[in-house]
């Protein structure tokens, strides 16, 4: 069985809203990338199941992604977004998980340069509810934000924490990789897993096998162990 742990689907208005989920995220799609297109691509490439992740331009309304996973339960599971600056986000997290079968949520510390969003005391109740449901949280950020994940992984051991896109290692961080070591040190938390995804966009080469990324991938596998590493594509990005 082949499972892609990170893909995006979306629809356009009036079917589903389009708009930023962070003030500094301005990308917008020009056409839909719906569930049926994703299924066709999966079938064409021999992918059995995917984790569909709410995009950053699809607002905080996760309904299209949630409904797609409910409609195609043998092919999709869903991950949503919840506003980390909303003091009532506990209610939203519970609603999406209990009523719409979402497995968890994605957060983007790198979009907030004025606050450590994962450390906000106001988010404690939300994380407690996710932990109570044995939920999953995926973190989209860069190495300089690794300290936030270090904090919450220790504070909420009942949550499985996923590092999206390897936390964006860059070839110019080598050969010492000192800048990246805080990410590798997150392997000390048994509830943190590494997602090897979106590698081609980090490479300085536009040709497979993107060899300048091989050393850091091996370092990640050695640090986390193969049982705590997963593969994802990030397909199709945010445009079709």
Automatic annotation (TrEMBL):
Domain Amidohydrolase-related stretches: 3-237
Protein name: Amidohydrolase-related domain-containing protein
GO MF annotation: an example: hydrolase activity
Cross-referenced Pfam families: Amidohydro_2
PANTHER family: BARREL METAL-DEPENDENT HYDROLASE, PUTATIVE (AFU_ORTHOLOGUE AFUA_1G16240)-RELATED
